[in-house]
Design the sequence.
């Protein structure tokens, strides 16, 4: 049986009927065509599918779409605004915070959550905050540098 | 995934009714971080998922002079982002801030951690050493179960058909109380404990004598273990009461905890390693609990 849900994704309101077992990650990718949210492990380990749900990072492969009814979701597609990259996106580019790019959307979304709670994190706090995100290229060093760089830019 | 019905009741009674109708074929979910993974992994099938995050009693937090009571669906971050709770219940915060990563902590909470009843649960031992009680409502009314009596086997609990944990109640720690939780994992984060130990101590006013203590072990038995206690019994053999705070007494408690563990060999660790870890982690967590207790004198 379908459930009617209304979700605001990247500022745009979507309403529709979803099956209860549809995951938020599937809803975003398959129904809304927002394929920037990557699905890596599908077992809630890798963090590639992270999105902001009411401002907090969650793993969208671990949330039912129906549970997001009435919520606000931000995916990687929603980070840039007015044709300008978000500071975290610029920082990932400038600091070479990505290699294959698969983990990048989840890393950036999680970084946005970290910086919204703690605008000036230490390196250790950044690494702790990103512990739910795996980079299969093992490019963690530049990812941490990118978050530091974005923090500095946001502070200035 | 096997298709299931999604129900989001707004009252405890509504949830109890659906859970009672479906029995084992329904489960409550709060964060869903365990149940959804288990469902998708084919561990079991459900006919109904009961989302309890719309029930006010399961989302409330009360922290006052009687103690801390939080709804069973309260997420980890709601505890550790509260400065009062963080300051007064650091042993619980130790666990709430290390379960999963921040994405999991956004959804998952200690109520779900308890009901999932994993032998390795990080959140259960700390609740035990704070003498927390689970408040349960079911078709036949409400009851309270001490957290050390809650888990009966891996993934199994005392909950009967239709019963729901509504909240977890933690008595206000007296002056001179301190607690801590630590676990061992081969990486720095995002892993399941090879062994975990929560300890609490109650010191006398001088800060040099133990008046009472609790040591709870994770990942070294089919359920969390409270040292010196047989589940369901009324007796409790306190490992440290009456002893002076010293390296010797703490070392003896480590040995005792080591002996209370009944670990298995598996891919995460061996029996011998786990016993050793229990000894080390017991001494460490008692040390930290003493530090915290003295700061609260």
Sequence:
């Amino acid at each position: 049986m379908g459930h009617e849900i209304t979700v605001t994704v990247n500022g745009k309101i979507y309403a529709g009927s979803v099956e209860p077992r549809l995951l938020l990650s599937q809803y975003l990718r398959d129904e809304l065509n927002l394929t920037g949210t990557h699905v890596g492990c599908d077992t809630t380990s890798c963090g590639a599918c992270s999105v902001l749900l009411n401002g907090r990072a969650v793993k969208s492969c671990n949330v039912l779409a129906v549970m997001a009814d009435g919520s606000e979701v931000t995916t990687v597609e929603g980070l840039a605004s007015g044709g300008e990259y978000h500071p975290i996106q610029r920082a990932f580019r400038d600091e070479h915070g990505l290699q294959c790019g698969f983990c990048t959307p989840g890393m950036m979304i999680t970084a946005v959550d970290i910086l919204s709670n703690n605008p000036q994190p230490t390196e250790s706090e950044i690494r702790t905050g990103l512990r739910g995100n795996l980079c299969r290229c093992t490019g963690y060093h530049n990812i941490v540098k990118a978050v530091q760089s974005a923090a500095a830019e946001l502070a200035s | 995934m096997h298709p299931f019905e999604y129900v989001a009741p707004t009252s405890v009674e509504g949830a109890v009714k659906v859970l009672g109708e479906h029995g084992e074929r329904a489960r409550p979910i709060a964060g869903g971080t365990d149940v959804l993974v288990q469902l998708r992994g084919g561990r079991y099938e459900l006919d109904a998922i009961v989302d309890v995050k719309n029930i006010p009693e399961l989302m409330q937090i009360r922290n006052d002079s009687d103690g801390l009571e939080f709804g069973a669906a309260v997420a980890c971050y709601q505890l550790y982002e509260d400065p009062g709770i963080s300051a007064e219940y650091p042993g619980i915060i130790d666990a709430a801030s290390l379960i999963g990563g921040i994405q999991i902590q956004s959804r998952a909470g200690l109520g779900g951690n308890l009901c999932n009843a994993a032998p390795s649960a990080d959140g259960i031992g700390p609740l035990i050493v704070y003498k927390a009680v689970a408040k349960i409502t079911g078709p036949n009314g409400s009851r309270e179960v001490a957290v050390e009596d809650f888990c009966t086997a891996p993934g199994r609990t005392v909950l009967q058909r239709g019963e729901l944990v509504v909240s977890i109640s933690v008595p206000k720690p007296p002056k001179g109380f301190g607690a801590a939780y630590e676990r061992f994992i081969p990486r720095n984060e995002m892993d399941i404990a090879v062994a975990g130990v929560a300890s609490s101590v109650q010191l006398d006013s001088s800060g040099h004598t133990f008046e009472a203590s609790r040591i709870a072990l994770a990942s070294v038995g089919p359920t969390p273990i409270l040292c010196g206690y047989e589940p369901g019994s009324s007796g409790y053999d306190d490992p440290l009461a009456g002893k002076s705070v010293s390296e010797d007494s703490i070392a003896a408690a480590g040995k005792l905890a080591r002996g209370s563990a009944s670990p298995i060999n598996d891919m995460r660790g061996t029996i011998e390693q786990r016993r050793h870890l229990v000894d080390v982690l017991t001494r460490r967590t008692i040390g930290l609990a003493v530090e915290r207790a003295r700061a609260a004198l």
About this structure: Chain A has five helices and five strands. Chain A has two domains: 3-78, 87-155. Helices of chain A lie at 24-31, 87-94, 104-117, 123-129, 140-155.
